[in-house]
Design goal:
The complex is a heterodimer of chains A (402) and B (380). Chain A has helices spanning 2-31, 118-121, 134-137, 161-168, 227-230, 261-266, 280-285, 364-371; strands spanning 89-91, 94-95, 157-158, 339-340. With 402 residues, chain A is mostly helical. Chain A has one domain. Chain A starts with a helix and ends in a 31-residue tail after the last helix. Chain B is globular. Chain B has 2 domains: 2-56; 120-380, no CATH class. Chain B has a 3-stranded antiparallel β-sheet, with no helix packed on it. In chain B, strands 1-2 form a two-stranded parallel sheet. Helix content of chain B is 20%, strand content 5%. The chains are: A mainly alpha (402), B mainly alpha (380). The interface between A and B is large, with 52 and 59 residues.
Amino acid sequence: MINFCDNLTLSMQKTMIFKSAILLLLFLCCISGISFAGPYSISAHGNSAYGVVVDLLNTPPNKYSRGNCGHCHSNKHSGDMNYKFNDFINSQADIFCYRCHQSPVNSSQVSMHYQYSYSRMAGGDTKINCPDNIKDAFQFIDVAGNSQINCGSVNGSSHFLKNISTFIQNKWDFGSKNINPCLGCHNVHKAQRASYPIGDKGTSPLSLPSSHNQGWDLWGDDITERMNIYTTNYQAPYASNSKTFEPNADGTFNGSNMPDYITFCLDCHKKNYDTQMVSAQRNNFTNNFAGNFIRNPDWDISPHGKTDGVMNDNIKRKAPYTTDKNYVLSCMDCHEAHGSPNGLLIRKTVNGESTVDFTDWTSRESWLSLCRRCHVIDNEHNKNGGQCSSCHSHEINSERTF
Amino acid sequence: MWLMREMDVLRCLHVNIRCGKYIMNDLNRGNVNIAYFLIAFLFFFIIGIGLNTRQLGASVPQMPCSACHVMHKAEDDYRLTLSDRKALLNNTCIGCHTGTNNGGDTPYVFSSIEPIYNLTGTEANTNTLAGGNFYWVKQSGGDSMGHNVADLQNPDENLLTPPGFDGGRPAADGTIPGNGTWPVGQSVSCAGTYGCHGKHDSTFETTAIKGSHHQGGNGAIIAPGTEPAGGYRMLVGIAGYEDPDWEFRPTSSKHNQYKGADGTGGSDDSTISYLCAECHWDYHIDIAPWIHHPSDYDMGNTAIDSEYREYGGVSNAYEIVTPVGSNVVSAVKSNVTFNDDTIVTCISCHRAHGTPYAKSFRWDYMGGIGDGCTNCHTSK
């Protein structure tokens, strides 16, 4: 009788449980499960075809799939590769991202490709072979931020990673310490491999630092984030020696296939932050021309920006800048992002020619190697005046130089 | 707690009264004297109270004593070892808990044939429980797929001591795994000195969990005390809400509710993560900068518009694939509010016994690009 009682109760309960289970399972199907798709899966690191795959972690007994979190994030205390979550930056010579983004020979990434400069990648100049990877691009300065020999240059320049880390500290929810400086420009979970946006939704490796606490989306991938939106007066420079244009070495010249680098760079390099940015390497290179603080340009009032120089100098400019109008340049038309054998991150290749040798601030020839890429400057022009910066700067009134 | 138990008692009484009605109908049909019925009714009424009251504090279904115990050594056909014969038991932990789960009264943690785990062990056709199953870790090359308990297989070939073991993390009763020292090559056991369940000062597994099968609580374990019987799943000092069928095919509204404590840095010894930390302490740090994934950290600490606030989708439903802990465990939570109820725990990603996946992950972490990680890291 006891069994009868219990069985009867159990039977009723099972009926109720069964009915409830059906409803719950339907509900479960709607709300539960694993999320598989997301921006990471289409990022350069998460892509299943060419994403991150560290050789040590893809060799038995480890079988981490390509793109797996474990290639960068350890789930062990000391890490599968003996680095930890906070080992983002030790010095200019050793940061977390270099583990893969270095010479393909030494890279932890399986089949790492070369990572050339913007002069080669966008400028199309295949003669530029050094630096050929991200780590080397940052080695034009030493751990203290002073120039050091690299790629045959003793006056090269790189973004000083320690300063970037310090600058973004406590800004935009980046945190207060141990900030990976690469995050200043790249959202590593969204950054995409190709940097040549085509179409309404292209690809981009960039993210605005100020968007870090606002979704931290890509910058330059959307059609509204390109140079032709920043200004209708953009003219892309020539790519290599052909009559095609950067960045794709094709016929597009209005910047509609190029991220809006002005907005991107000025996110940090705007004059509000002048006193928060110091650069010993720049000050050394310019012989203390403008002090330790970087004076960030105001592109609205720069003749290379949105203000017309009113010099009627169209006949003194080279193609493709020969129309009589105010051309607005992109930062990347003249500067590298990571590092350059030249001072002040000046590119080796500008407007299709890799003849820029900007390694001496006081040398007229050094300046001419750069400025003559776009301007017709005869030998008589201020021939005793020294460097071009004596008269010209980012801004008309020379308040903000370089 | 007292009130809940009383309500359960009343519910049981109601069931027995309903049983009595069925009995009465049967008896009437048989024209049996009403006096016999009253005697029978009172008998079952009293017995019912007794049985159901005992059930409230029991972790075992109603079984005859002989299901677990032998009375005389002469009956010892089971050929137990001396240690296992403690309490006259006729089998070991694994021995009793080997089988295929079907939603019944005995939780099976080891199956001799491969259990159905599907992708995450939570799908409708699965037959594993909250801790997973030891089946996979027992297979050749399966060392990393679970805890290598001594009753099932040899020690882990690579992990000769528990990773992160520091020997100074006592349970609530003051006992420390290994008594503070873990011999190289020592296997983990289900309970006892080198085990998870019960007291750590007992060499014998059975004495380590003494009393808990008979007196253990269920439902909300809010004040676990220092005895195995008072702890969540016989884990000394650990709080939590016990799902009555050990998460057999769980849903967002029917599951264990794990205890977490935000930002305590491991000082709260009642959390499920602390249980893990007793052996794996060096994983248990929640203070930034993190040198590993945090545990006992509430995702409610993040910005209101952060990616973590999308845990569980628009409705912030409890994700059974990636369970989060809560500070309050008096009831199961179907949705989370990011107010001390979205606490990352060790078992948000791992299962304690074993899974088909490396590191005893709940999902195939190595085989994809993270997959289950995106349940919290939603913008990825």
